[in-house]
Amino acid sequence: ARHYALVQQYFRQGDYQRSLAESLTLISQYPKGSLYDKALFYAALNNLQLGNPEVNYSKASDYFKLLSEECPNSPILAESNAWIAILTSLSMKDKELTTLKKELEEKKSQETLIKEEKTETMQQLREEMELRIQQLQEKKNREIAHLKKERLNPVI
Fold first, then answer.
1. What whole-number distance in Å separates Cα of residue 156 and Cα of residue 153?
2. How far is residue 64's CA from residue 61's CA, in Å, rounded to a whole number?
3. Cβ(3)–Cβ(26) under 8 Å?
4. What is the mean pLDDT, run by run of 10 residues, along the chain of 156 residues?
5. Euclidean distance between CA atoms 97 and 115, whole angstroms
6. DSSP 3-state of 71
7. C-alpha span between 65 and 144 (Å, rounded)
8. With contact defined as beta carbons under 8 Å apart, do 87 and 110 qualify?
9. What is the pTM of this model?
């Protein structure tokens, strides 16, 4: 009972690491004891509060599932099952989000490639136009020179 009082006290104080440690002590020292379901429940809740959500949500879910499997008559079974449903949904949303982020990155890469190709194509077209303009300018200059020559030397 002393460990359970510490679990609750540390949890209320926001010291989730110490609360988790006390929960794990209860779980290991008193498996199937009268506070076993509560120790599993608090182990799960503490994991929800700590560090990396992906890792800790999975650990929390494992403790809630263990409670459901090993303590089918627990008064907190319904709440534990609700948490399992929430965490399962969150996990699915996280996977969906990860997939969408990958797709977005792929689209951005494709967009970058398309922009680069467009830039390259536009540069080629610009160069071709400049060459054509230069050729036309040269042709025009030759024609003007030819016309001037004919005017200056009329054939009469």
1. 9
2. 5
3. yes
4. 93 96 95 93 94 78 95 96 93 90 92 89 92 94 86 69
5. 26
6. coil
7. 92
8. no
9. 0.66
